[in-house]
Write the structure tokens for this entry.
Amino acid sequence: MAGCDLASVVTDPHSYVWQTQPLNLPAITKADDAHRLYLDYEEQYGRIDQAIYAGDYGGAGEPLVVAYGFGIKRNILRLLRAQGMRVRVVPAQTSAADVLAMNPAGVFLSNGPGDPEPVDYAIRNIRELMGRRPIFAICLGHQLLALAAGARTYKLKFGHRGANQPVKDLTTGRVWITSQNHGFCVDRDSLAGSGLEVTQINLNDQTVEALADEKRRILTVQYHPEASPGPHDTAELFRRFRERL
Amino acid sequence: MPKRTDLHKIMIIGSGPIVIGQACEFDYSGTQGCKALRSEGYEVVLVNSNPATIMTDPEMGDRTYIEPLTPEVVARIIEKERPDALLPTLGGQNGLNVSVALARSGVLDRFGVELIGAKLPAIEKAENRDLFRQAMQRIGQEVPRSGVAHNIEEAKAVIAEVGFPAIIRPSFTLGGTAPASPTTWTSSCPWSMGPGHGPFSEVLIEESVLGWKEFELEVMRDLADNVVIICGIENFDPMGVHTGDSITVAPIQTLTDKEYQMMRDAAIDIIREIGVETGGSNIQFAVHPQTGRMVVIEMNPRVSRSSALASKATGFPIAKIAAKLAVGYTLDEIPNDITKKTPASFEPTIDYVVVKIPRWAFEKFPGSDPTLGTQMKSVGEAMAIGRSFPEALQKGLRSLEARRYGLGADGRDKFAYEDLVSGRARASEDFHHMLERIAVPTPDRPFHLRYLLLGGVSVDELARRTRIDPWFLEQFRAVVEMERELRAGPGLAQDDDALRELLWRAKQYGFSDYQLAHIWGSDETTVRARRKALGVLPVFKTVDTCGAEFEAETPYHYSTYERPFLALRDGRFVPQQASEVRPCDKKKVVILGGGPNRIGQGIEFDFCCCHASFSLSAEGFETVMVNSNPETVSTDYDTSDRLYFEPLTFEDVMNIIEVEHPVGVIVQFGGQTPLKLSGPLESAGVSLWGTPGDSIDLAEDRGRFGALLDQLGIAQPPNGAALSLEGAREIAARIGFPVLVRPSYVLGGERMEIVYNLEALDRYMRGALDLDPTRPVLVDKFLSSAIEIDVDALSDGREVFVGGIMEHIEAAGIHSGDSACVLPPRTLSARTIENIRDYTRRLARALSVRGLMNVQYAMTRHPDSGEEKIWVLEVNPRASRTVPFVSKAIGVPMAKAAALIMSGKTLAELGIRGDPWPSHVSVKEAVLPFIKFQGVDAILGPEMRSTGEVMGIDTDFGLAYAKSQIAAGSTLPLSPRAAGRPRTVFVSVNDDDKPCLLRFCVPLVELGFRLFATAGTHRVLSEHGVPCEMVFKVNEGRPNIVDRMKNREVDWVINTPMSGRSHKDEMAIRRAAVELGIPYMTTVAAALAGVDALTSLAGDQAMSVCALQDYHR
């Protein structure tokens, strides 16, 4: 696994807009009805999520987020949409210049498989984007951003798998139960000078779970706040990203 | 946050006696709580009235009070001990109720005691129906819809909201006497109301959730507002059966991740809204099987029975962690005991299936209805762990001690297999009736499902009728299909490879060797030998909280069947199994536990097993506990060095012995369950510790035991053993009526009766011979009005320590487990006591007892000379039910000592000597479950029916007895002078007891009581000038005695039954007393003791409280 660029294998070579048709179901109109967001609309109400390869963004007036697709999970897209963001997914290799040309309000770096180090093209592009747009990253995206900031990554002896991983937020002292599925990890000792602060750690092995840089409006997490499967403890992060745009 | 340093002394309240719905799970939680708090350096004050608990061991707490669990008594303890805080969440509903009462009455404030764990408002919000409903609405959680109606129009309006089916019940009941049983209103309106149309002016109409899927989540929260879910539990039986009476399964089997996460989110919102600050809570949900609509049913803001199950199912010690959270730690500051390296702030994950099956005791209550409903009726439970639901289910069924070895196919089926599969059974009335009734949950339902599936009824039809989730029924079908396959082939006759393959599969479906032997017409030994020869062996896995993600430090194991994989060894591939049992150089001792609680075998035996483990472990042995009861302390992972959660059958126990190679196995402490295994285990060459098996046989075999007593010159009541009607008649003619009859080899007085005439003897014998014509019926002379004496002794084979001599309060004829007793004895002469000691020593030596021995004696007084004569009724060379009581009364841990003796120590080496004669008086009283069984006579007899016991300790008998009564929930009325208002005692005794009437009636009148009496009793009292008022019996006119009881005119009932059988009108009186909560006594001896208690209470000497540590200073 180490050394293989798997993101380029799974990324969608075409850019697309993610659209979730607004549903007029009384049960989900309440904005505070958080867990309803996780209902599988598609199963229950037919095909309503879709990737639109050509055409309109929809959601006029909502901020645009460009999401790097390294193997992006659908529920991430659903939750970004649900927080009122227009979402365009771009291939892993898309240049920073192309992304900036779309004039997004924020950039999202997706999850994806494998070792982050060989995904050097993404690391270069992310480096260019840092500080120029608010960035939110999950899993592989989080590792790529850390590499872009000059940190190192390594392969864990025991990867984190499962929906019961305890993560501690060092700024608040709170503990969240998270969904995780990764074999590589950001080296905590390599972060000096990166400008990134470790804000969350895994309580099982003390490894890095979240990085932040308030100045550059960067927020990255190693775990999967979009859950599905897994607990919804950290779904709040999507709203926080929306607020930073 | 670090632990709080402003607290120093913390009080924990236990749950009192074992009753249906509140069993030894709270001993487990309280014990964990004590250990956790003390390890943090806090001083622990413990209160509980139940002596058979580990938590009341003087070394568990700093100050241990065995006192009644009433707010008044606990207030006195608080006043004396001045704790800084009270932890109310570990003692079940009882402990919580007492704590709430203390908080409400201002006692806690007055003495500056802080409630930790859960504050009063949170408890009230969770427990009060309306407050809970409002709270749920605030956070957008649904509860079953409901509304109140006063007339039919309102009712229709409510129904428009609630929908059908609905449950209608009177919204309040008058004096608790109106029926509150709900009626299901399904479609059109069969009901009218309004003036003159019904007894209720207001009804509650509630959406029916009967048949919905039922789930529970165990939730923990800390002061930093971190919340984790420890375990999700799914009920096999849908809504409508109390969860304590449901088969339950962990983890949840039939929800998708999305459904589960919604439930998880809801649970987190709920614990926050209710405001349980720290510790564990249990939240129940119902989910509509078609629409998925989820409603919240209830929340327990405390550690519950389900918490105990969740702890044992996952390895996560909920009670221990709850105690640590209550003193300020956060979850991430507490290490997970199992992994040592990871924190408690995580959600356990399990890579096996856990099934809990309740154990009922309907056979003890003839006339009771075995239908399961919203009132819990089970007396215990067994838990089993397997790699699949079928394996866990079959292991669970054979753990129940209900003489079943799995899901049928064990020779005890009601329908023959051939009749079922050929369709013959299906044509029968019985089969049809069973199908019609399958929707009604009963203890036999799992077996009925098997018959129906074998008989060709489809899963769909069963799901429709029972509302059990089809997934579970498919699992049952898979077991049944496996059985068909096993029966179809040539069985043991097939070639090795085919048989090996078949055995692997059968084992993975949980079939026991016993079942396989039955199916193949062989025997268990042959099947076992063949299976082992073919290499089909179980492998032991670990309960580790984390699904093997981290290394487990605690050896808590279960067996499963996993085919070997090929491993490379020295250049060759060899089959290998991944056993997780670690080798160890220490000498190992296996202690077999008692299995599920049932009447006659309860927590007392678990107490003995734990003590044996503690003392042997301290002596340097590696102790290995085997048990199947999740409520117990013995199945806590840190009680023994190793724990196996396994059924206590020969097969399962041998599997462990073959892996562990112990130097000894102890069967003496777990009651009848392990004792039954002693024969087969000895035959298999296992070294049993303690009294030799031959001595057990010597004590149980009529002929041999009689000869031994003759030789020792000790008397026993004339007796005989009969295998026929004529035989029994001859014995009765020889020894004279009344006689005591019972089947041989029973515990708990099962089917024991006192027979007063030939007619009753014939009836009993016909019944007994019908059941089992090969087992003799024992016929003993019944010693009327004898005093029974129980003795617990310790022996090392040479020296004998007569630890406790207990005098029964009720006269002979009441099972010793149901009788109150007092230590030291109060009416026996010094000479009799010396004789009893002497006999006990001689018996112990003659039986080569190594460890514990219990002897039951009866003492009769010659009517003229008054000479006391002692008879031996029974000798049991094993731990008895009274060992914990005696240990606490005399301050000598007898079970611990017994275990050390078995390991080779002598009494002298242990420093145990003398004849203890404590200066304080201890009374043990039994607690009976009659309130749970409608239509059952509340009368004591030779068959044991109590579920638990309490202990009262004080300086004199009256006070100690009064405490025992209060603790047992039957608070005697304070005398009128003390109460400041008139009090009435109803007296009605049989002719035999009439001579004793004055002995208690005169003191009662002197204490200022008013007496009611029925005609016969009234006559005797009037003749002797005792003032009393005559009242009607039930069929003599109105108002009769029951009417007067309902009108609260009676404060105490003394009613002794007519000899031999119960009469309808007497039964009505006793039932009324049970249901109205009026203290009642059914023996003269108890009445006399009660009068003593009242006299003591009326005297100058107030009831005081005293810690065990002070009694045994």
Observations:
- The radius of gyration of chain A is 17 Å.
- The domain at 7-244 of chain A is CATH 3.40.50.880 (Rossmann fold).
- Residues 120-129 of chain A form the longest helix (10 residues).
